[in-house]
Structure formats: C-alpha cells, structure tokens
Amino acid sequence: MMMLSCVLMVLVYTADKTGCSYQSHGGSDKNGAGGGGRDVNAVKPDANQYSGPQFDPETPRNVTALEGKSAYLTCKVKNLDNKTVSWIRHRDIHILTVGAYTYTSDQRFQAIHHRSHSDQWTLHIKWAQKRDAGIYECQVSTQPVRSIFVTLNVVVPSASISGGPDIHVNEGSTINLTCIVKFSPEPPSYIFWYHYDEVISYDSLRGGVSVVTEKGDVTVSYLLIQDAVQADSGKYTCNPSNADLSSVVVHVLNGESPAAMQTGSAGLSNSSITILCVMILSWTFTRTDDQLR
Questions:
Q1: pTM for the complete prediction?
Q2: DSSP-based three-state secondary structure for 48
Q3: Is the per-residue pLDDT at 266 higher than 50?
Q4: How many CA atoms lie within 13 Å of 40's alpha carbon, on the beta-carbon side?
C-alpha cells in the first residue's frame, strides 16, 4: 500500500512539472464531451485559417503569345508579408527573377512589379520565341515553398485556303475562295487577296468581285468572283497582316470535263459510276442464273 502511494505521488509530481494532464477513457471535458483518451484541448490545423501568402485563384494558368511579340506571365500573391516571389523556368530549372530583380543574361526577360499593384508580380518576355514555350513556376519563399504553374504557348498564326492546292471551276460559275487564319491571339487587322502578284481590286472594271471577312478566334475571309472566265485562272494568294500567306491555283474550265477535275477530288464521274453499277448488276444476275441451273 505504501509502495502504491509513493508511485501515485511521483506521477502527480511529474505531471505537475511537465504540464501534462491525464484523462480517463470515460472522462469528459469541460463541455461534457467524451475525451476518448485524447487531449481535447489540442488545436487542429485548419486550412481555411491559413494567414500566410496565398495565390489569387484568378491568376491565368495558360498564356498564349504571338511569336515575336511580348509575353506577360502574371502571378498575384496576397498576404505576401516579407516573403519573396520568384519566377522559375521549368525546362532547365533556371531562376529568372527574384522579387523585382532579374537573374538571367537573356535580356528578353524582365521582372515587373509596381507598387500600385503590390500583389502582382509579372514576368515579361520580349520578342517571344517558340523555344520559350513551356511551364513556368511562380514560387513564394515560404517553408515549405508554395508554387503555382503557368503554361506559356507561343504560336505562329497560319493561313490556309480551303480546297487547295488546285481548284477547278466551270466557266461562267462563281469562284469562291475561303481563307482561314488560325492560332492568332488577335484577328488580323487586314487580309489582302492577290491574283498572281497584283492586289485584287474590288472596284475594277471587271466587276463581280467581292470580299467578306468574319473576324474572331478563327478569322475567315471569302473571295467571290462571279461569272468566271479564262482570264480568272491562275494563282490566288491570301495574305493576312499577322500570318504567313497561303496560295492556290484556280483552273477555269471551258466545256465538258470530268467531275474529278471540277471538284478537285479523286471521285469518279457520274458516267463512270453508272458503268460500274451496270457491271456489278450484270455479274450478280449471271451468278444467280448459274446457281438456279
């Protein structure tokens, strides 16, 4: 009995010195909740209560830039306090900027930070090249570090004329050329059409020439030439202001010609299809007749 008392005294003394408390499995906290042997006063971490640096969810994660133009990667960080924002290129794990300072010999890269937008840190890439495309990391110097990733796409706008490289039309019909401009961050400011090396004039003495252009994410320009004649044959070029040109050759046909030449397809003419059908029917009837015999 005396031994048990001594043990209890040692436990009480130790608990008092270390600040530890003991709860039985059936005990309750001050509010009457069961402790289950755990310290009910322990505070659990709550992600919603994090008060350190936080990335703005509206930060663009995909950026498209036109080759040869400037690209801007923006990172917005709230509650930065005394932490630092850095931009890192993932391709070679190269630190490009730290705070408002640039750490690369490539003078096309520049850190931009304005006091009027204290939560915004921008990586400016001048004269963007195809090799600049890839993943960039915006990193905050917390422990552990916090990061978001931004993908840069560098595009070269392209133009193509539907139905090329050769287009066949009947004399007297309408030449309808469709030029499609893709991968352009902004619509071309203009699109010129050429016949050979001369700009097509819409108010020429020939008449019957019109152009309709629909601008958008994909810009489409239609060149319409009514009452086609032999002189309208030749090379036609679509030349957008912000894309490489595209050309086709138009053939204005005089008289009867196979449908394959008129449409530019590899399909059979109507007469060829008729002959083929007759041959198949003849072969079918022959086999049926042989089987009946």
A1: 0.54
A2: helix
A3: no
A4: 16
